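Exercise: predict the structure of this protein bound to fe (ii) ion.
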Amino acid sequence: MPTTPMTTPDPAVVPPLPASAGRAAPAGAPETAPFAHFPSDVLRGALDGVPPQALESFLDSWNDLPADEYLGTERPYRFRRYGRFRLLDEGLEPLPHGTFLQDRTVNSFVGGVPRLFAPLHDTVAAGPALRAVVQAFRDRLPGPRHTVDTCGVHQIRVVALPDAEGDPAPEGIHQDGHSYVAQVLIRREGVEGAQSRLYDLDRREIHRALLSDPLESIVLDDRRVLHDVSPITAARGAAVGVRDMLLVDFFASFDSSFDSTKEVAL
Ligand SMILES: [Fe+2]
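Solution:
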């Protein structure tokens, strides 16, 4: 496991687990909080039954991510893979690889551009660690999940050098265009910055967190909050700063978050 020091998010800003997660709120019932911020214990517990070798292989896979070619920068600072799955009661069914497309209304940076990222390694896509993580969030979505039948999985690394920062979210404050999004810190080494911030639909900040403990996570209702992440810089004395994230998009299969007409064989 990564060796970043353990920290715990400020309990004052961590909302309680949504009591109605996984169920539609009855008419007239108060809405659930639009997000939840989980200490690492939640995913550590979910991963308890995963064989250590499988977990190690899952975490090591972030060391083999191709450069994101859609950044438009001379030096790539973001690296990633992408896969999508049908959510089944018994696990995840891989869907054909395809381009990832966000609407211009939610992504002013590369919205409208079908992006073809490298697929997940089979060991990740078919492994028990990913299955356990996705299931853990399925059980904790901050709202009803009855239409959610598909997920997209992004493995992302952002790097910073002493003379060059990395920007996890060059689009600024935004929504992703999904139903729910889970953000999981996998690794944070030699990094300053990367404040995760959530906003209500009037762009008032409602939560701010520095994800610092591997497997610490946030899951948000993408229709009720906006989010961004501040740039990262290399910590003093570090030759390189590395921030690895796992993002899981939850959506209905009729959603437009991927372009099913552009399925490709890889
Ligand atoms: Fe985002």
